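This part of the workshop introduces the protein records we will be handling. An example says more than a description, so a record of this kind follows:
>
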Amino acid sequence: MSLSVCDCRHMEITQQYSSSDTVNNRWDDEWDNENSSARLFERSRIKALADEREAVQKKTFTKWVNSHLSRVSCRITDLYRDLSDGRMLIKLLEVLSGERLPKPTRGRMRIHCLENVDKALQFLKEQRVHLENMGSHDIVDGNHRLTLGLIWTIILRFQIQDISVETDGDNKEKRSAKDALLLWCQMKTAGYPNVNIHNFSTSWRDGMAFNALIHKHRPDLIDFDKLKKSNAHHNLQNAFNLAEQHLGLTKLLDPEDISVDHPDEKSVITYVVTYYHYFSKMKALKVEGKRIGKVLDNAIETEKMIEKYESLASDLLEWIEQTIIILNNRKFANSLNGVQQQLQAFNTYRTVEKPPKFTEKGNLEVLLFTIQSKMRANNQKVYMPREGKLISDINKTWERLEKAEHERELALRTELIRQEKLEQLARRFDRKAAMRETWLSENQRLVSQDNFGFDLPAVDAATKKHEAIETDITAYEERVQAVVSVAKELEAEKYHDIKRIAARKDNVIRLWEYLLELLKARRQRLEMNLGLQRVFQEMLYIMDWMDEMKMMLLSQDYGKHLLGVEDLLQKHALVEADIGIQADRVKAVNNNAQKFAIDGDGEDVLNIQAAFIQIVNHIVFYLFEIMNGVAEQNSKAPSPIPSPTASRRGKGSLSSTLPTQNQDLPAAQLEGFLHRKHEWEGHNKKASSRSWHNVYCVINNQEMGFYKDNKAAGQGIPYHNAIPISLMGAVCDVAMDYKKKKHVFKLRVTDGNEYLFQAKEEVSLFPLFNILCHLLKIVSVAKTKQCLYVKQMNNSF
């Protein structure tokens, strides 16, 4: 069976460049009813493969065209653009055919480009090259597929068509050019291990076939036994570089183009055919050279080998000396990653850079032996290298290299171990620092909370708890110092990220010092609260004693007979003595209270101090009142004294009912700013406007008026025409059920109106109560007010 070259070429072009359309049509039919996303994915994958193959062909064909245009000092950079004007295409055909084509038309207009391309295509038709569905406008327009097809057609015509191999057989079958090229490759690589050529695609991926072709014709260029099928990239790079450097073959392909699942067949054929032509020409030249140069070979070969030996020996010795200097360098990177990279570079030197040099050293010995053997065979004076370039000198230098290499490896591994320890120490530092920072932050929040309680037992318990906290925190100092010690160790070892370590160590120390400050301040506040609670407890005891004493002094029982009167007089004398003792106790309470009243700054603290002093003053006043009662008892003419019940009611809890109108209240005036909200207009009616307003409040003669400021109060201009409210029979209480704002108390008057008042802070809440209570002589310190005092003092101190 025989196929003509044109028919074969036509079938290949048609099949190749219509394959993408055929594949797309097939997939369209198979996927019509399938998921659209899968269909799009498959199409995109096919297109990507086609684009990749087209890119490889373009690169290969561009290099092939330039390899021939270089004969006429021309070159193209873009296959599609530079061939579109037809000029380079005409020059390419002239180089390939050796014939003169019509002179290209001058001009850059489209009509000129079309005319030039037509000249090239017409020449191809005259050469009986069949061009199907291809016109000059396709090339001028830069049609990728047809431009690549045109170049492939030219390659087939001028590079592959003349290849033919006849096989022995019954029918003496004559194969096509492509099959003949494949057969030539198979014949040349027969017997080479790991080489099995059955196509122009996958058979060439591992690079062994290229190396086998080169080794077959130039065994001096390749040590084929050292090639490994698994190292495809190295094999391909080795073959391509040797072909370019030693055979003068243009490097049409790169290893990345071949080392894929399905290399492009046309690109491989284009490159392989350059091997065919070169080796065919080399074979002819070799036969001719043997006839002419056999006489000169023996004369010049020895001289070249000597020059080669001198050059290789000098290069090798220079490389060894430079490498020893590098290996003796002990300046390592100050990081684990850097040392690992240096160790990797060292391993690369041992596995990649050094082996070729070792091979080169062995080749030098072989080369010198060959030179000396030839010279002895030709009865020439045996060549001896000069001092320093003897094989013994090279071996001694190589031994120094081995020693430096060993010492370098030991130093690198020692430094690697040190850096690994530093990294472990740094991770340990970060872990401990994170735990210390978390613990310190949590304890800072803990000691920042002043939940001491509102009575003496609670404060005592808080004191004991604080002592336990202090013990824990003091014991924790050792752990903080452990973090500092690790940081100092890293600094002493010159850890590469010591700035970050130092910053985090400083942060831990700062948190620790701040915690100690907070702990000390909390201890001071706790001791102040403890003293305050003791003063409060003493006050409550004194005031209870005063109530009992007033009840006794208000008694109208003066005795019904002489013995009874004398008994009462004796008891009264004891009462007077007890009152004297209690006076000293009141004085002591007053002195202790002054300690809490003389310290502190700020408006809120001053209000607390004023209220605290007022309580003490009331106790003193109460004592004087009792002493006056005693004097009246002694004179047997006691003056009217308010009932104890009324007195205690006047000093009641925070939730107190204000006096009614028939009670005798002194005229008083208190004023200041309050944040006010009108909540109820009646007993069952919400206020129409329930917004908060900052108003200037004035309490005068059991009435509270609201003004914009002090000036408006002096002029008597009420805030929004508000009528003053009567405090007679009013109820004052802490607004515990109001959650929208803090530090709020409420005032309910008898007509059903209810107002909310807010202090700026919790420490201001008691002075606001004190304004109302002072007017109504509410001076009793009950449990609820005591709680407010405790909270105020906690925040003040």
In short: The mean pLDDT is 77. The longest helix spans residues 265-327. The chain is about 65% helix and 5% strand. Residues 534-621 form a domain with the Methane Monooxygenase Hydroxylase; Chain G, domain 1 fold (CATH 1.20.58.60).
